[in-house]
Design goal:
The chain is mainly alpha-helical. It is 74% helix and 0% strand. Helix 1 crosses helix 15 and helix 5 packs antiparallel against helix 9. The radius of gyration is 19 Å and the shape is globular.
């Protein structure tokens, strides 16, 4: 396995995990509480990472973390859960398929990356493939849910581009940066959730289990892998991993909820997955100077993951 393939594989675990969000939201969580759900997903995970890394932003990174937290978390989570509550899993997930198109435009504006025929074609193919999955899903569309989903995709896409533009401070690992953003995003959601939805609902054991999974496995770990991957991949390559989320959601919907999955949906998955693979073709990830040449790519990737944890103040 090449070094870039190892980076892509680890980064891909994030959208695959996010594909389960829709199932967990509809089957494990209280109904009609998108803001509270976004809060419970972000803030506990962010505080945990702050406690582990024991690092706070310095200087300009206070406002940069706030902006990134608002884009990647504070706006994205409530809109995502609003879409998840109002749409079936596959339909709610499809809005992520337009993310690569948003990123192409935003990267041209803020990163100076000129759109290429490859990036546009793969982005359109990914959106088309995921749309095929939805068109035959037998579910009615809800306008509010669709708008919320599109805005969540735009917010996340902007977060990807600015994460790529700003990088991270020297000596600060991806784990700490993830904690800053999750905490900032959770604090954005906190007053809005209580103002609009009122006091937290009474929670069952099932609800608590769902929130625990979303906060730690689906958020703390997944966002760490995601932000780490954005640093090492181009913005378009990273965001073209996004279709793995709706593909995963559709498979879970078919396997666990009995949702329809016919030949057209399977063809759509193949197209979307093919676009994801093509989007990863490009220059290899450059080796870091300190990495010994004798290391295999897997060992290099493991060492870098350990370095990220150590940079963040976490010791094994």
């Amino acid at each position: 396995m090449s070094r870039k393939a190892a980076v892509v594989a680890l980064t891909a675990l994030a959208p695959i995990s996010w594909g389960s969000t829709y199932f967990v939201t509809t089957e494990f969580l209280p109904a009609d509480r998108p803001l509270f759900t976004g809060l419970m997903r972000a803030l506990p995970a962010g505080l945990l990472l702050l406690a582990l890394t024991r690092k706070l932003p310095q200087g300009a990174w206070w406002w940069k973390s706030a902006v990134l937290g608002a884009l990647n978390i504070g706006a994205f989570f409530p809109l995502l859960f609003l879409a998840a509550y109002r749409l079936p899993g596959g339909v709610a997930a499809v809005v992520g398929s337009v993310g690569p198109l948003f990123v192409v435009g935003l990267a041209a504006l803020f990163l100076g990356d000129k759109p290429t025929a490859k990036s546009l074609i793969t982005a359109v193919a990914a959106a088309f493939g995921v749309s095929l999955v939805v068109l035959k899903a037998g579910a009615a569309l809800d306008l509010v849910g669709v708008i919320a989903g599109l805005l969540s995709s735009l917010s996340m896409s902007a977060g990807v581009v600015f994460t790529k533009r700003w990088g991270r401070p020297e000596g600060v690992g991806a784990l700490a940066l993830t904690g800053w953003q999750l905490t900032a995003g959770g604090l954005v959601i906190l007053p809005i959730a209580f103002l609009i939805e009122g006091a937290p609902p009474a929670l069952t054991g099932t609800n608590l289990a769902g929130y625990a999974y979303l906060a730690f496995g689906n958020t703390a770990i997944s966002y760490f892998l995601w932000f780490r991957g954005i640093e090492r991949l181009s913005a378009s390559s990273a965001t073209l991993l996004g279709p793995l989320s709706p593909i995963t959601a559709a498979i879970i919907g078919w396997a666990a909820l009995g949702q329809a999955l016919g030949p057209v949906q399977v063809a759509g998955m193949v197209i979307a997955f093919g676009a994801t693979l093509v989007g990863q073709l490009g220059p290899r990830v450059p080796k870091k100077p300190e990495a010994a040449e004798s290391f295999t790519s897997t060992e290099q990737n493991r060492q870098e993951l350990s370095m990220d944890l150590e940079d963040s103040g976490v010791r094994r």
